[in-house]
Amino acid sequence: MARILVVEDNEVNREMLTRRLVRKGHEVSIAVDGQEAVTAASAETPDIILMDMSLPVIDGWEATQMIRATDTIAHIPIIALTAHAMESDRGKAMDAGCDEFETKPIRFSILMEKIEALLEQGRSA
C-alpha cells in the first residue's frame, strides 16, 4: 500500500491514526513537529503526508510551505488535519499548499477516501 507520514504532536491522536492506517495495510512514519515533518519528508519521500496544522517548533502551515518550496518533495500530496473547522481555516491550509483538509475529530472513513483519491491522482499523473 502507501507510505504515509503522519505529522501529529498529540500522542493519543498519533497512535490512534497510526494503528488504523497500519490495519489498512499502510506503512506509517511519524513526525511530532513541523521541522521533523520537513526532514522526514525529504529523507523518506512518503506517498502522502497527513499534516496537523497546530504543531510546535514550526507549525503545519509553514512546514507545508517549506515542503512545497523543495523541488524533490513538492509533489507529495498533503492533507491538513486540524481542529479549526471554519471555512477560512480550510482556505488558509489550501493557500499554504495542502491538497485536502480534514477536521478533528477525524472521520476515518472520509479521511481514507481523501487519501485514496489523492494517491489515485498521483498514479494517473
Secondary structure elements and pairings:
Elements: E1 3-7, H1 11-23, E2 27-31, H2 34-44, E3 48-52, H3 60-68, E4 78-82, H4 87-96, E5 100-103, H5 108-124
Parallel strand pairs: 1-2, 1-3, 3-4, 4-5
Helix pairs in contact: 2-3
- Indicate the overall shape: globular
Element-level helix/strand string: EHEHEHEHEH
Low-confidence stretches: none
Strand order of the largest sheet: 2-1-3-4-5
C-alpha termini separation: 18 Å
Count all strands and give the number: 5
Please estimate the helix content. 40-55%
Characterize the main sheet.
5 strands, parallel
Range of strand content: 15-25%
Mean pLDDT, as a whole number?
94
Describe the structure.
There is one protein chain. The chain is α/β, with parallel strands linked by helices and 125 residues long. It has five helices and five strands. β1, α1 and β2 form a beta-alpha-beta unit. The protein has a five-stranded parallel β-sheet, sandwiched between helices. The mean pLDDT is 94. The protein starts with a strand and ends with a helix. α2 runs parallel beside α3. Helices cover 48% and strands 19% of the residues.
Q: Summary?
A:
48% of the residues lie in helices and 19% in strands. It is of the alpha/beta class.
Label this structure with key terms.
single chain; 125 residues; alpha/beta; five-stranded parallel β-sheet; 5 helices; 5 strands; globular
